[in-house]
Amino acid sequence: MKTRVTDMLGIEYPIIQGGMAWVAEYHLVAAVSEAGGLGLIGAGGAPAEFVREQIRKVKERTGKPFGVNLMLMNPEADAIARVIVEEGVKVVTTGAGNPAKYLSAWKEAGVKVIPVVASVAMARMMERAGADAVVAEGTESGGHIGSATTMTLVPQVVDAVNIPVIAAGGIADGRGLAAAMMLGAEAVQLGTRFIVARESIVHENYKQKVIDARDIDSEVTGMSHGHPVRQLRNRMTREYLKQEKAGVPFEELEQLTLGALRKAVVEGDVVNGTLMAGQIAGLVHKEQTCGEIIREIMEQAEQLLGK
User: Fold this and answer.
1) The pLDDT value given to residue 268
2) Distance (Å, rounded) from C-alpha 172 to C-alpha 167?
3) In degrees, to the nearest 5, what angle opens at C-alpha 44 toward C-alphas 41 and 50?
4) Could you tell me if 99 and 115 are in contact, meaning their C-beta atoms sit under 8 angstroms apart?
């Protein structure tokens, strides 16, 4: 299934693994790339030298293309942007801001730049700035979200820009890939399904929560202060929503989630940790290798699309 995205990135299948902080480290990234997709290192809030180390460890495990997801709110974003060039990374996706100030240096180094967008206006802005493609991410996705659904956002972005569009949010199987292609996308980005990949270093408690999740088990915190985050419900989300409803200031609410993602991913604290996952978690039923996940998705999509 060849598209402008597979050709641009040099990958076999139009499947990209989301750059999830703490989750998307070198084991998972290398496994996704080796299986024919595009693995992305999740820089999150990590320091630049940690990202450099991750890049080098991926290179030790695969010669296939991979990239880095840069959260632009990271205090070391400038340094990480330089590391991406210095280490010869050929793909970068960006989130939580506008990457315009890095584009000239990245383009000069031959880096393909793919911002994540949640609106048509942002997609147009990124195309004008020189982005090579955009990820149109719907509100169904896990983590930080916008307000438009994937079903409504993707076709509007496709109509608004000439660069390739990658669909994200609420996609976990071949049906989702086929649907995204029908909407005009040329690849998909998956996060939640890769959380439970065998190569993922996510704690087994967290993986099991995703596997056990039902369609109604995700909820969004932070809507009132403009920082919405989708995650699986637990004691922490209940307390957060209770305090949010009571009008507790954002700075105080932030203390509830400080270090909470690490608690879930590394320590397996599924009571007080942040269990970022999309609404599609109810469709994720088992742990598989990255190769098995990608093959299963592609076989189903090709059958549906008559490829």
Assistant:
1) 94
2) 12
3) 65
4) yes
Could you tell me the pLDDT band of residue 258, with boundaries at 50, 70 and 90?
confident
Q: What 3 state SS string does the chain have?
A: CCCHHHHHHCCCCCEEECCCCCCCCHHHHHHHHHCCCEEEEECCCCCHHHHHHHHHHHHHHCCCCEEEEEECCCCCHHHHHHHHHHCCCCEEEEECCCCHHHHHHHHHCCCEEEEEECCHHHHHHHHHHCCCCEEEECCCCCEECCCCCHHHHHHHHHHHCCCCEEEECCCCCHHHHHHHHHCCCCEEEECHHHHCCCCCCCCHHHHHHHHHCCCCCEEEECCCCCCCEEEECCHHHHHHHHHHHCCCCHHHHHHHHCCHHHHHHHHCCCCCCCCECCHHHHHCCCCCCHHHHHHHHHHHHHHHHCC
Cβ–Cβ < 8 Å for 300, 307:
no
Check: pTM over 0.70? Answer yes or no.
yes
What tokens were used for 307?
């490829």
The fraction of the chain above a pLDDT of 90, given in percent, is: 89
| Mean pLDDT value across the chain | 95
What pLDDT band is residue 188 in, cutting at 50, 70 and 90? very high
Residue indicated by tokens 């989708």: 230
Query: Taking a C-beta distance cutoff of 8 angstroms, is the pair 280, 297 a contact?
Result: no
The rounded distance, in Å, linking the Cα atoms of 277 and 233 is 10
Residue 251 pLDDT grade (very low, low, confident, very high; cuts 50, 70, 90): confident
